[in-house]
Amino acid sequence: MEFMVDFLTKAKEIADSNANIPEELRVNLQKALDIACGLDGYLEKMSSQESAPLAELYKKTMEHNWDKVFEEGKTQFRLPKECITGLVEGQTLKMLVHMSKAKRILEIGMFTGYGALSMAEGLPQDGSLVACELEQYLKEFAKPIFDRSPHGKKITVKIGSAMDSLKELAAAGEQFDMVFIDADKNNYINYYKLILDHNLLRLSGVICVDNSLFKAKVYLEDTADENGLALRDFNQFVMSDPRVEQSKITDDEVFRGLNGRSILDRMRLDGRVAYVTGAGQGIGRAFAHALGEAGAKVAVVDLEQGKAEGVAEELTLKGRVMLKQGYGKIINTASMASLIVPHPQKQLAYNTSKAGVVKLTQTLGTEWIDRGVRVNCISPGIVDTPLIHSESLRPLVKRWLSDIPAGRLALVTDLQAAVVYLASDASDYMTGHNLVIDEEVERESDEEEFLRYLFTVNREEVELSFSLGR
Fold this sequence. Notes:
Helix content: 40-55%
Distance between the termini: 97 Å
Number of domains: 3
Strand content: 5-15%
Largest sheet: 5 strands, parallel
Order of helices and strands: HHHHHEHEHEHEHEHHHHEHEHEHEHHEH
CATH topology of the largest domain: Rossmann fold
CATH architecture of the largest domain: 3-Layer(aba) Sandwich
Radius of gyration: 32 Å
């Protein structure tokens, strides 16, 4: 906006020095100048305020003698301090990171790192940002402030030609959720092509480009500015590139997603209703939370054991509703006890009932699939819930842990993604399946061990007979 202020200021000076200029024109020029002058300040005032490290970085950048640094040969180019991103743009980038839920960001052109640190502040704790920067001096300039920021550890600076850095990242199979381009304008098209041609940007990722309007020089017909012309060509190229219209790029559903929906979109449950029994605690509570986070409206039901018949009736009713509407997902909770015989505890009734749940799942999954209803179940290993923390179970827990390679019990959060997957469109091809979530080495039942012994003995007899016959 500063270039508008410059033009309007000159026009106002000319008008004020000419007595023949109508007063109405002077008044309107002043109004236009007030609008242009006040915009940046108002935006800064209304934006979220920068963090202390960002404020320190901005002050350090603006006070630094960049001409002297260049004259001393510490930088390859004369770097104007006006290259800094600034508060409004920095907070906008941070907001875009939040909105896109980006976890990995690629920045081309870092300068002193204000934009990089702004975006890093918007990343989750396990997020990361790779900044490509030509000048080694700028990496050293930003490092002390990055080190003092709790978000600086998310930033990795790659020094050298940005094109070379991009090729290295592509060769390593890297992908990013968001890309911010703010470097030499003549290479914008080359950066853009390399990013898309080598799949550096994930499906549904975001590319942000700085200076895309470049003081109106991209659309003024008399533009002779080299950077303005380069950005005009870049804007035209992007507008004409079918790759930025994902629905038009290809009919390949692997690339554009089934019916235009990415895998993460297909795992959303917006508009669905989930009915969770036993949701007052433990695994049921975790399932209810997971389904709710995925967008479903959740009906939470928790009944006493004596009301099991009521649960069966309610499930039958829900099944009828699904069959009538021609679509539905039923997810039962079984157990590893349906597949193995856990010991040393004695639990005949429990093991038998869980095996029955699996067979029920397989049967309904087969019989109801032609009517649009999928039935699957989850068989977790031993889950750490309040029920197993009694004093009497401590010896058993110790024994169980000795059989688990991970050295810990399952957490209810270890099961949440599975129930969301089975409830979502992403699992439409799956029915009658028992999804095992377990870290245990499967223990053989007595019958399995006996059969394995017989097989070994018979094999030895065959080998012995063969030797004697020969």
